[in-house]
């Protein structure tokens, strides 16, 4: 998984492109464990911009406990995600399709409302598990 591409993809999914470090780390962990599709996708995107450095190139800025994608970062991400030109396709080695590779596109990152709902559900499940553990211990 390409860290810098993943950061850009996560930040662009947040309102105003800003995410606090806790949210970034959580989203990175989810994507890192999501399987080969995400790793392959970020590797392909990163190959289109080999000298990518999100901080020194001004694509992401650090502000008040989090990171924010800049307009330059959004533009580069759009360029990376644009369909390859005929010349790029000719230069790229052919990719073999396997049964493990799905042809469906990777779904977009969840929106903040979905994240908040999942967070509440997770907290509730953890609370219930603690209560069950206490009841079983006594």
Description:
This protein is mainly alpha-helical and about 140 residues long. The chain folds into 2 domains: about 1-95, Orthogonal Bundle (Arc Repressor Mutant, subunit A); about 105-138. It contains 6 helices and 3 strands. The protein has helices at about 5-15, 20-30, 35-45, 70-80, 85-90, 110-135; strands at about 20, 60-65, 65-70. Strands 1-3-2 form a 3-stranded antiparallel sheet. β2 (about 60-65) and β3 form a beta hairpin. The longest helix has 26 residues, at about 110-135. Residues about 95-100 have low confidence and may be disordered.
For this entry, give a set of tags.
138 residues; mainly alpha; Arc Repressor Mutant, subunit A; 3-stranded antiparallel beta sheet; 6 helices
Ends apart, CA distance between termini? 45 Å
Total DSSP E strands: 3
Structural class: mainly alpha
Number of domains: 2
Overall, the morphology is elongated
Strand order of the largest sheet: 1-3-2
Biggest sheet record? 3 strands, antiparallel
Strand content: 5-15%
Question: The CATH topology of the largest domain is what?
Answer: Arc Repressor Mutant, subunit A
Estimated radius of gyration = 19 Å
CATH architecture of the largest domain: Orthogonal Bundle
Mean pLDDT: 81
CATH class of the largest domain: Mainly Alpha
Q: Which ranges are low-confidence, i.e. pLDDT below 50, for 5 or more consecutive residues?
A: 95-100
SSE string: HEHHEEHHH
**How many individual helices?**
6
Q: Helix content range of the residues, please? A: 55-70%
What is the topology?
Layout: H1 3-13, E1 18-20, H2 21-32, H3 36-47, E2 60-63, E3 66-69, H4 71-81, H5 86-91, H6 112-137
Antiparallel strand pairs: 1-3, 2-3
Helix pairs in contact: 1-2, 1-3
